[in-house]
């Protein structure tokens, strides 16, 4: 039986690495075009190569599960087309027994994907952002809006923490501003738009908020809060420390341990930490998807009964698009805590697991 396991693993791994390389290079092309433009502008080749190296781990978090899915479809599509599955089952082998080495390989690949997405990718992503760092000591020479990065909790303006969905020129879109307190939950301010500018006389930053509301928690009962709507509201922010560079970490930049600690910290202070929860769930869910994809790919590969790789690529790509669509939806509503977007990330895993388990069981009994 060792010969059978080696045969299955050899075929699977050959397809896996081939698909992984092809899709990783395909996703890198867009970034390489942008990096080539930097090379034309005078950046050193060593810098371009370093940036390319930093991008690869982030791309792998998407291509590793996809390669697992398509390689499994290739393998069992070929085994089914050549009637090898029928011959193995005629010899008394169950489908689960035949698939055991594949599940073991998928589990190990999932562990590797978890390490990449939870530790390696965040570190590399942070290094990329550090290349675009801003010297806050030269705040008078830059547009103040550059101090706010979209999709990042900015903690430089104590006691305020600022988060925005997007930036368009000098305007910040869909803001969350939290005023942190030591002895009470944070005051939450939500606004559709905000404009930040420097007051040169007072050397302070003015944040003008438009069309929003302020939620102030009842100190006697933290579960209750008072809401006040506004059309215009202005906050005065202190300029961050002028010592060195201010490089805030986004959820994508945080290793898993730091991300977990930040989620707990925001939970205690009453800050909406849903974007961080979505990032945490996405990392775990995509790592599990390696095994889930393998589970559903085995019966689908057998059912297609085709050895052509184009069928496997098309079917695998469709499944992957549907899978990642849920992640995109969760990230789009990652500020809406009442919608629980951190659980939406898990829906495709649950659906694919149930579907794959049912199909696997039926084919095994057939």
Question: Explain this structure to me?
Answer:
This protein is α+β, with helices and mostly antiparallel strands. The chain has two domains: 2-131 and 277-365, no CATH class; 136-246, no CATH class. It contains nine helices and five strands; from the N terminus they run H-H-H-H-E-E-E-E-E-H-H-H-H-H. It has helices at 2-40, 45-81, 84-90, 95-130, 256-269, 274-304, 309-332, 341-344, 347-365, and strands at 160-168, 171-179, 187-199, 204-218, 221-237. The chain has a five-stranded antiparallel sheet with strand order 1-2-3-4-5, with no helix packed on it. A hairpin with a 7-residue loop joins strand 2 (171-179) and strand 3. The protein is elongated and about 85 Å long. The two termini are 22 Å apart. Mean pLDDT is 82; it is low at 134-141.
């Amino acid at each position: 039986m060792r010969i059978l396991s080696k045969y299955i693993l050899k075929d699977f791994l050959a397809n896996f690495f081939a698909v992984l390389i092809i899709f990783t290079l395909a996703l890198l092309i867009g970034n390489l075009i942008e990096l080539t433009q930097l090379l034309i502008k005078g950046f050193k080749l060593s810098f371009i190569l370093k940036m390319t190296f930093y991008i690869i781990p982030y791309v792998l978090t998407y291509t590793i599960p996809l390669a697992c899915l398509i390689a499994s479809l290739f393998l069992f599509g070929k085994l089914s087309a050549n009637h090898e599955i029928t011959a193995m089952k005629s010899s008394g082998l169950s489908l689960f027994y035949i698939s055991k080495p594949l599940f073991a390989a998928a589990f190990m690949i999932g562990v590797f994907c978890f390490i990449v997405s939870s530790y390696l990718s965040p570190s590399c992503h942070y290094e990329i952002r550090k290349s675009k760092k801003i010297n806050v000591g030269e705040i008078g020479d830059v547009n103040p809006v550059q101090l706010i990065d979209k999709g990042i909790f900015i903690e430089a303006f104590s006691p305020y923490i600022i988060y925005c969905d997007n930036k368009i020129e000098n305007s910040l879109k869909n803001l969350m501003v939290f005023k942190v307190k030591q002895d009470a939950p944070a005051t939450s301010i939500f606004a559709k738009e905000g404009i930040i500018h420097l007051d040169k006389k007072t050397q302070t930053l003015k944040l003008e908020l438009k069309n929003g509301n302020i939620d102030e928690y009842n100190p006697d009962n933290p579960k209750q809060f008072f809401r006040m709507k506004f059309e215009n509201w202005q906050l005065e922010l202190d300029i961050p420390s002028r010592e060195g560079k201010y490089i805030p970490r986004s959820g994508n930049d945080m290793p898993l341990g730091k991300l977990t600690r930040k989620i707990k910290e925001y939970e205690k202070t009453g800050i909406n930490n849903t974007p961080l929860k979505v990032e945490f769930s996405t990392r775990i869910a995509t790592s599990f998807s390696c095994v889930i994809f393998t589970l559903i790919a085995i019966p689908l590969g057998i059912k297609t009964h085709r050895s052509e790789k184009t069928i496997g690529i098309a079917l695998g790509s469709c499944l992957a698009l549907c899978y990642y669509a849920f992640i995109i939806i969760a990230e789009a509503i990652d500020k809406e805590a009442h919608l629980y977007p951190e659980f939406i990330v898990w829906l495709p895993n649950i659906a694919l697991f149930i579907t794959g388990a049912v199909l696997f069981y039926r084919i095994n009994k057939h």
